[in-house]
Amino acid sequence: MTYRPENLDKAVREFTEVLGIDDMEGPYVLEHLGVRVYISWNAGLEFVSPHGDAEGAAATWEMLKTRGEGLSNVAFGVDDLDAAEKRATDNDHPRMGPRIDARTLVDDWSIRFAFATESVLTPIAGVPVTLIESREAPSKK
Q1: Residue 84, domain member (yes or no)
Q2: Average pLDDT over residues 60-79
Q3: What's the pTM value of the predicted model, to 2 decimals?
Q4: What CATH number is associated with residue 120?
Q5: Closest CA relative to residue 79, chosen from 136, 13, 122, 132
Q6: Residue 139: which residues within 8 A CB-CB, separation 6 or more?
Q7: What angle do CA 112, 2, 113 make, to 5 degrees?
Q8: How far is the C-alpha of 63 from the C-alpha of 9, rounded, in Å?
Q9: Using CA atoms in the order 35, 69, 103, 20, what is the torsion angle rounded to 10 degrees?
């Protein structure tokens, strides 16, 4: 979901309170991407607002301008990213750009996850979709 910077914290608070989300992480400020992010891995929700002047901030502002605040992308968890990308491509919705290694986005994610890769598809029925395959790293005891 995408919100203007001044509305992001309130939206996150409202969703977590109403839906009882107890694992919301963030905010993470991803300067190199130009966004500020909250995420609940268990609920499968990500909240984003533009931040700074990196290229991603301009793209996020453009999305807000054209689509408004709220639902902006569907993140769809898959067990096999290769197979999911092939199915999408076979149905005329190929990946846009390179895959994203989410483990590089936040310092502790490289330790937390053994694998966390995203693939942004061309929109499906007008909706932006990101495929995500992730596996948490084995816990060390």
Answers
A1: yes
A2: 92
A3: 0.83
A4: 3.10.180.10
A5: 132
A6: none
A7: 10
A8: 19
A9: 120
Task: State the residue for tokens 């197979």.
Answer: 83
pLDDT given at position 30? 93
Residues in the chain: 141
| Domain tally, the chain | 1
Biggest CA–CA distance in the chain, Å, is: 48
Residue 141 belongs to a domain: no
Domain-embedded: residue 87: yes
Mean pLDDT of 67-80: 92
Residues forming beta bridges with residue 2, ordered by sequence position: 48, 70
Flag whether 33 is in a domain. Answer: yes
pLDDT tier for residue 108 given thresholds of 50, 70 and 90: confident
Domain that holds residue 13: 5-136
| Burial of 118 per CB tally in 10 Å (0-12, 13-18, 19+) | middle
- 16-67 pLDDT, tens per residue? 999 999 999 999 999 989 999 999 988 889 999 999 998 889 999 999 999 9
